[in-house]
Structure formats: structure tokens, C-alpha cells
Fold this protein.
Amino acid sequence: MPSLVATTPAGPFVDEKARLAAAVEAARGEILDLSHRIHANPEPAFEEVKAATWVAEVLARHGFVVEHPAGSLGTAIRATRRGGKPGTGPRIGILAEYDALPGLGHGCGHNTMAASGVGAAIALASVVADLPGEIVFLGTPAEERGSGKQIMIDDGLFEGIDAALLYHPCDRNHVESHPLASEDVDVVFTGKQSHASSDPWMGRNALDALIALFVSVGLWRQQLRPTARVHGIIREGGTAANIIPDRTAAWFMIRADNEPEYERMRERFAVMCQAAAQATDTTVEVTFSGRASTMRNNQVLAERFRTNMAAYGIADQGDDPNAGSTDMANVSWVCPTIHPDLAIAPEGTPGHSILFRDAAATPQADETTLLAATLIAQTAYDLFADPTLVEAAWREFREKA
Ligand SMILES: [Zn+2]
Ligand SMILES: [Zn+2]
């Protein structure tokens, strides 16, 4: 990994960017302690109670005005610090995620996102006296399930934000990404219990319905584009082999790389659920969670981040061909947004795996966390110091809308 101290930042505001890097380095212990604590205490979506508390504590210690909870989510945070320079300036959103994966822990490395977001905010706070505008830190729960950022958008927490910046850990370095539109779907079949041997004809089998649905989905895949995804797990499959199951439940996800195709998949999937119920004389309840959308990468912001990265000798490796989904994409429809990825693990390490989870607390992950904090802070600084960049980012946002 490149050293944070030895390298001189390039481009405009060289002295200020060196100050930001030094501020991150000075807070190294505090930032990494936060990353490691969150990694050791994984909490799933909407239940990030400890992580949110620890994040809020650090921000309060560094002079931020902290709202926690913020909006309708108990584990959401909004923390602000006003610039000391008179006049109007932008409100730059520094985001952080901190949810983990059920049964796996921090297999997506969100502990490094929480710590780097806090690190960027701390660094900016050290130069805030010379800046116009406002630093707006947003702790955003429930990325892995439920699109917490969409809930925060609906709560009005993104109103007035001029740009949103969030790093994600990866096995490669790349500034832009193209996540798939995605949604969680809960499916519950209801049938009728009976003895599986003495009177099976009295029952209506909810597990048969669920198996019929999985078979339909499996056959459907042949007709889907290579970029589309549909995958699921069985949450409840019955209680005993000698009882005809009267209730089964599954959790599916549907994904596509464009919104119209996603809409078609959503409709088709709902029809398959009804068909499985009809075929088995059961009833079905289908609940869609709310969507993560496709992403609009803001080129003005991406270019600034790329330049700041290059100053540390890190090249952009280009788009990731393996796309997941993220609710950060929803933010990209509200204000200029970037969601760059930086490597915390050797290339080829799969996401959502034990390997990636373990990588998220290694010295390499620690250095990347500090680097991400520095680059996010430096990119935010570019926007605070040069109002024409914010104007250009919004012009692009409006032209592409
Ligand atoms: Zn993630
Ligand atoms: Zn993930």
C-alpha cells in the first residue's frame, strides 16, 4: 500500500490536501479502533445499535452537532459542522454504512466504510474554520437489506445536499460502478396442515408451492439476459416430515441493469408466485421491500476523486464487471454522487464471503480505510474550495436527468 505521509498530493490546494492527510494520520488510532470494534460486533440491517452509537460518539467528540437517531430510522445519524468562512458555500454529504450480513458478519467490509466516513469528517473538521458551507455526515443504516438510504431520502435528510461521497471496500480500485436495480421480495405460502401419512389428501402443501416457485425461477433464468439476477433462500420450509406444511416462507432478490427490464422481471416474478399458489391450492403473500435503483456516476466528482487517487500512485482499474446492488444508487438520483471502490484484499477475493470478512480487519484494510478517509476528505475539499466544481456537477446532474 502507498504511504499516506510520504506522498505529496497533486493538483490544486496541495497544502490543504496535505493538511487533510495529516489530520487523518493524526486520528489513525481513533479511526481504526472504530473499524475494528464494528468488525468485532457485527449487526444486521436496521439493528446497527452499537455501531451507530460509537460513530455518533466520535463525531460529537470532534465538534459535530449530532442527531441520532435521525429521521425515522433508529440507527441513522446526521451530524453537521458549519464552515467558519463567511458567505454561502456547498453542503457536502460524507456518507457511512455500518450494517453486517446475517450469519456472516462484516463480509461486505462496511466497518471500513463507517470508519473512513468518520475519518473524512474528522479531517474536514480540522480545516473547517477556513471553509464556507457545511459538512453533513450521514450515517446510513440497512444497505444490505431494505434500502435505508431511500428511507432517509423520504425522511428529507438529503434535502439541500450538494454532493454525496461514499467509498466501498473491494478487491480492486475503481471510481465508477454500475450496480443493478434490485429489490428484496418476501414470499409466504399458506396451505393446510394434515397428517402426512394417514390423511395427506386433507392437506394443502405450502412446501410444494415453494418448490414449484423455485423450479419456475430456475427455468426462467434461461430466458433472462446475462446481466439479470434472481436468487433466493428458504426461510421456513415446514416443521416436521410427518406434517403437511401449512406455511412456508422465502426471501428472494431480483436484479437487472436497467429499470424497464427490472419492471418486467418484477411483474413476471409476481405472476410466478400466483401460479405456484394456484397449482398447489394454497394462497400466497408477496411483499416487495422497496427498490435499490441503477446508478448515475457524476463525472465531475469522479474526475476529482481519480485525480486525488493518482496523487497516491493508484490508478483507476475501470468498471467492475461483477455488479451487485446498492441504495447509494438511489442517492445518485437526488444529488451528484460518487461511490468509488478501493481494494482491501487481493484481486479475486469474492465479496460476501468469509475471506472478505477476514480481509476487512487486516493491516491492508486499515491502510485502505485511512486512504479512503483522506481521498473523500480531499475530494470534498475540492468542492468546498471551488464553487465552479459544484455548479458543474449539478449542471451534469440536470442534463442527464
Ligand atoms: Zn457493501
Ligand atoms: Zn454487500
About this structure: The CA atoms of residues 163 and 336 lie 5 Å apart.
